[in-house]
Structures are given as C-alpha cells and as structure tokens.
Design a protein that fits this description.
The complex is a heterodimer. By secondary structure, chain A is α+β, with helices and mostly antiparallel strands. Chain A is about 35% helix and about 30% strand. Chain A has a seven-stranded antiparallel β-sheet, with no helix packed on it. In chain A, strands 1-2-3-4 form a four-stranded antiparallel β-sheet. In chain B, strand 9 and strand 10 form a beta hairpin. Classes of the chains: A alpha+beta, B alpha/beta. At the A-B interface, helix 1 and helix 5 of A face helix 2 and helix 3 of B.
Chain lengths: ~675, ~290
Amino acid sequence: MRGFIAVVEREIYERRLLGVVALFLGLAAIVLPLVPGLRPGGVSVEDLRSGMAVGFALLLGALLAVFLGSSILAGELVERRLGFYFARPLSGRVIWAGKIAAALTLILGAGALILAPAALTGGGLSLSGMWGTWFWNLSGVALIPLAVAGLLFLLLAAHAASVVVRARSPWVILDIVALGLVVLLIDGSFRRLIDQGIYPTQSVWDGSRILSETGVTAWLFWALLPTVFLALAIAGAAQVIHGRTDARRGHRILSATLWGILLAAAILSAAFASWVLAAGPRDLRNADRLVAAPAGTWIALSGPALHRPGYHPSFLYDFGSGRWTPARFGHIATFYDDVEPAVRFSADGRRAVWLDYEGLPRVDPVIHLYRMDLDRPGARPVRTTTTFDAMPGSLALSPDGRLLAFYHWSYKDRSGRVIVQETVSERLLASIRYESVSSRPRLVFTPAGRLRLYEASMIRRPGFPAEIRESPDGISEIDLSSPSPRVEPTGRMPSARGSGWSLDVVHDRALLRGKAGLLLCDGRTGALLARVGEPYSYGYFLTDGRIAVLDRALNGARALRLLTEDGRSELRRWDFGGARGLVPAGQPSPGRLRVVVSATGSPGGGWDLRELDLESGASRSLGRRSLIYPTHGRDGQPTSSLAGADGILWYDPVSLQERVLLKG
Amino acid sequence: MNPIALEGLTVRYGARLALDQVSLAVPEGAVYALLGRNGAGKSSLVRCLLGEQKPTSGRALLLGRDVWSERAAILSEVGVVPEEPDAPPSMTARRLSRFCSRLYPRWDAAGIEARLKRFGVSPDTPFGKLSKGQKGQVMLSLALAGTPRLLVLDDPTLGLDAVARKAVFEELIGELADRGTTVFLTTHDLAGAERIADRVAVLSQGRVVLEEEMETLKQRFRRISFPNSRKEAVARLETLAPVAVASRGWEVEAVVSRYDEERLVREDEPEVSALTLEEIFIAVTGAAGETGP
C-alpha cells in the first residue's frame, strides 16, 4: 500500500500545475457569464455558470483522459523511463494501479476544481441550463457516475491505443485485423437484432433511452460495455505486469489479452444474436397477432418470444405439417402499432403475400413485397421485384391469389396510386392516380372481377382538429376488365359514429359499429339494410351468412342474438346473466358457434368456453380457457386466440378440431 | 548463497540470439565486472537480472530468489544504477529521496544528502536540469541510500568525464570499504573496473567467453615478443594458448592466455610484459569469434 500511495502521490505532484489550469477554468465559468453579450437570452447567470462549468469540466476531463492515458504509462514505456519504477521494489500491479489511480484522481480533481466555484455561487450541476432540454438533462448526481465511467473508459482506451501505436511492433497488423473482426462481429450482432425490430433505430441514437431498455439488444449492450471496460483494464495491467519495461513484449501481451477477451465477447455476441433469432413459432410465449388462411392449415402469427425480451418474431406456420418460415410482417405491424399482421392470404389458402423492410425502417426505407405459395412442398418466401419507398397504405390479394392490389403514396413522386398487378409475373394491370384522404383505403377484390375501395373521409368540426373517420363512408370500384380502368364511386355508407366495421366473406354486406348502433349495410352501395344492434354492440358474419350479435345490456350483462342474413329477424337468443366478458371463439361447424364467457371480462384465465347449437339453442360448457387476446376477429369472423392448459389453441378449419398450436 | 546466480540464461529476439545459455555466479562481497562490446548482450543480461525482462529460457536468481517472479520483494535489498539515468525530470534529488524512502526498509536519508554534498549536486535542482554526470551521481546516491546487500551498476560511468568517473568509483570504493556490499558492474570503463573489480567476466556474442578472478586473469595473460628468426619459439607459443599473434617485420608479438615462464627458453630472447584489463579485453573479444581463451 505504501508503494501504491507513493506512486499516486508522485504522479500527482509531477502534474500539480493542472490544478492551476482547472481553477482558472472554474473562475472563467464564474466570470464569463457576466460579460455583456455572452449570455443568450432567457438563460440566467447561474444556469450559464453551471452549464459552462460542467462543459469545461467534461472537456478538460476528456482531454486529460486522452493525454494522461497515452502518456502516463505508454509514454514512459517508449521513452525508457518506466525502468525507474521497475528498478524499485514496486510490483507491476502497484505501478499500473498507482498510475491509473493518479490519472483518474487528476482528472476528477481538475473537474472538482472547475465545478466548485460555480457550485459555491449557487449554480446547480446541470447542462440543461446552457444547452436546453434537447441535450441530456442530467443533474450533477446522475452526471458524476456517467462522467467517471466515460473518462475512465477514455483513459484506458487511450493507454491501449498509445501502446499499440508507439511500440512500433509488427503486432499492430494483428491489432488492425482483430479490431476489424471485433467491430464486424459486434456491429453485425446488433444490426441483426435491430433489423428484426428488437431495438428500434431511433433508440440507437438516443443515448439516454438505452439506459431504460430491457430487451435482448440492451442485454447485449450492457454485457458488452463492462466486458470492453474489463478487457481494456486487464490488458493494460497485463502489459505492465508481464511486459514490464519491454515495449514490444508489452504490446504483444496487451494485444493478446485485449483481443482474446474482445474476440471471445464478439463471438459470444454473434452466437447470442443467432440464438435469439433462431426462435421458431414454438418458442413464442403467446401469439398476440394471429390470422388463419381462409382455407387450409396455414396461419400467420406473431408474438413475444420466450426468454428473449423485446423480440417479437412473426411466422407463417402450417400447423398441419409443422412447417414454418419467418416472415417479418409482425415487425411492420409492431412498427405501425397495428393489431393485424400485414399479411394477406388468398381465399383458397394457397398463397400469402406480405411486406417487409430491407434493413432498418425509417432510414431511406426500401420495402419489399414477398410471396409464398403455401401448397408447394418445400416452398420458401420469394422476394419479388416490387418495392416501395414508403409503406403502402393497403394491400389486397384476390380470392384465387392471382392478382394483387395496393395503394401506395410515393414520397418520391408526391402522389398516390392504386396499383393492380399479377402476383407471380408482376405484370402491371392498372396504375390509377388516386389521392386517398385517409392514406389507407381498404381494397377488396369482388367476385365480379372488380376492385372495390372503401375510403374514410375527414371529420371537420369547428374548434377541433380534422380527424379521419373510424369507419369508411365512401365506396368506389375499379373495373379491371376495362381497357382504361378508373375509380368510379358506387355509393356512401351511413355514419355509425363509431369505432369499427367489417365485411362479410364475399364483401356483399358490411357491419358498422358505433354510437348510432350496429348497422348492416350493402357492401357495394353502402345502403342501410338494417339496424341490427344497440350502440357499440359487436356483430359477426357466420359461415352460412347469418349474423351473430353480442349485446350489452345497461346493467352490463351480456347476450348473444342470432339474426337472419338480412338482419331483420331474430332467430334465437342466449343470455349470459352475470358475464362481463363475452367473446366469440370460432365455428367448429356451420351449425355451431363457440364463445368464451368471463365473469370479469379481463384477459387471462377464468374464461368458460361454451358451444352453442345454433339450431336447437342448446349451450354446453367445454371447460376453462384463457383468453390471450380479446380480439373480436378480423372481417367479423367469430374467432379468438385461446390458451388452455396445453398452450395456445386454434381451430383447425379442416378437421374442425381444437388444436394445440404452441405448447407452453 | 551467491547474491547473483544465472542459470542457462537465454534471450532470443526473433531469430537473433542475444544471450546463449549464460551461467555465472557472483560470490558474496565480490565486485564483479561484466565486460563486453556493444551488442554483446550486456543490456539484455542486466534487464533479466533486474526482473525487467523474462528470459526465453533459464533463470536469474538474485539473493537466492527467482527475480522474474519475486522482483519487488528482492529489489528492496538491491540498489540499481541504470545505464541511462531515468528518474522523472521534474523531481529534485530531495523529492526522489523522499519517494524512495517509502519503498525501502532501511533508507539512509542523511547519507544521500552527504553524498550529494560530496558530489557537489544540489538536492533541490530538478533531475532534468542536472548534467549527465550529476544525474549519474544522483542515481548512485539513490542506489546506495537503500543500504543494499547488492548493487547492480549498468555502465554507471557511460558518457561521464574523467572527473565524474573518478568521483563515482571513489564513492563505490568507499561504500565497499564501509559495508562490503556485493557489486555487479557492467562497464566500458575498463581502467575503472580494473581498479575495483575482483572478478571479471567477458561477454561476447551472447556467450561468456571468460570468467575468473581479476588477479588470476592478469597473471595468466601476457604479451610476449621475440625475433621473427626464432622459428622454434613461434612453435612453442602454441602451448601458451595465444589469443592474438602479430608479425611485425623482424619481431613476433603475441598475447597468450596461459602464460607459463617454464615453457619459454632463454635462447628465444623473449620480452614479456603484463597486460592491462583493457588490453586483455581487446585481445579476448577480438579472438572470441573463433574460440574461447
């Protein structure tokens, strides 16, 4: 210990003039704000003092860290003055620790001397007063450990770099190669994770946000940061302890230690990223987005992966054969905060199309259209040549999967277009200029070979900002057989003043849900056919065309009504007295409907799965289930994701059996 | 126990062999001079001896302990004067003394002041502002102030003028007289070494080519000259292990390494003269490329 203190004291004494420089800067931070014209408007003298003091302290600290890091050991080593210490009864460990401790003490002491006058004259220790809130608004308490860690890192890095550069040994080639490899592996690991949406791009540039991240990318970051720290510290110490006064040997030891640790860490990072991204559908904790192909056994699902926080992969999954392929529509859905996967199946379930970013979203995005023929054995996703410079507002696949339509507003052309093309050949069939008010018109192919557009208009009320309606009111069609196709209005929907709508399978009818009640309308003209439910009731088109309506009485009790196709007659009614939650759970056969009922209505356990016989009206319990996601189904189809004791359940449309999709 | 023992010390820099299986022992109380031309391997040997460099193979024992693994503990009993005075330039001799006083168990602060006074070096002048001779004197003072059992001097008079060299050696002689410290000295100042060393080794091309007591060495090396006409005498020279033979007109001059008066005959008219250490060194290192003397 005596040796350590002697080394620290000697190093500090030798550089004692730094104290004078620091004190001068501290006093400058006090005096400069008083100089007329130097203080920006709106900033108080105290704030400017504290800002300048913190700024000077950080600036001098960084300069000192680099200067001392490159001179206090490496400089003496190459100038052959380190022998003075090694000719004394001082161990290499003491020399290393003493010199690093002295350098850190000098840096922190200089910082304290700069900050002290500002602190004594009433200024806090924060940068925000000087640079505003866009800069890290860190108080002195939060700033100190961060600054100490950052300066120590600079100090150690400067030492390592200085030894490498000044030793003039051929090992510098290995350093360059190893540095390249480490950067390549670590950067690649992060990119692979970020590309999969585990860590949004914007966070990478927001230094303060990474502190609160908890996903696997943040795990990797927080594991690598101390590893790099430790590698620099251990390598520096090893260089002094074992290399002693031999600069070249020291360099060799430093390089071998540093790159040994960092390469191992980089390889582990790459392995970790591979493990994270190797998650398949059976590694999902649950499926929060799940859509089945209208026919066949393929589904699109996405959800949080087990043991991989922040990873939300999505897949096309054939629960009949167990085949699956990753498809990043879930990434896009997450990015747009969409509930539905951005994937479309053909009505025969034989083809799927979806959109995906190349690389990172938001940085000059290139969005590719993918397709996969699901019925072909061994088929893989195909990236088509169709690309977009912005996310298309809508995407539709014809029932036979042969045609594809999308609405795309191009940033490059500053205009919107409805585009129809052949799915496989990508031959363009129509490209019609169309400025969508909502930017996301709903496109559907009709059995008559036309493309229908549902467009929501803007609501403009005095005193309120304009907003887009929740459900569409304008309907138009494009005749795809016409030699010069154009958008032709076909009708208008009534306003339900509500929050949702759905179409039946053949797009003949629409259900609008809202304050005005549950309205049944003509799918082509928008004409009101019937008011089939109370305000905010849910309605569903059953496979035989009849309509199921979920009502909520004033006392909160739930009921289910079965209506005719035209919605004018009630065929049957089921009352669920004490239930607060009632959600449809699929049709195992055309004459039967399953629902889950809960006393509380909250997701999770405690839902009673019941099967209703639509003809006899009988209702029987099938046991307890968990409701994973309280969705009311896409396009009004009465399906939900359920979890039983065995995992996530789904109804196989072929066998009409309840199946365990994902175990766990 | 020998204060210094080198066992098969080998140092290799890539393909170049700096030290080749060097073994030697310095007895307690000896003043041991290691001589060698530039590049002979002296600096590598001293670095290994002080635990600053790990030998490729073999080991160096200082005060009976392996110096590479126990350097810090051993050096509390060893005084070192490096070839290049390497003390921090901003420190005065007084501050250097204060710094060292915390590292050595038996620090003689008064002794260092007295020595500096004898040398005429101000204790308050920064080390960097001292002349080369004064720097050497400060380093010697520091080395002696730790009351060492062993003193390692790596060419302490290199670049010093005659007066400074004399001062260094006189101080050493005084120290030896007072305490009988073991001294290991490398030097190019052969006259100085001759004055104080009682044992000498010569290093050439990484190998010890000569190692023995100074007196024995000087006894067995002689310069012999005789007329060139005495062909029998030239033949008899071979029995005296000549290390250098030169024919100069009518005279043959040789340096022999196993001088034995009995083997010469009066008829050869030999002229025999003693050699200085420097002359022996030149003869030995000039011939070392071929065989050992």
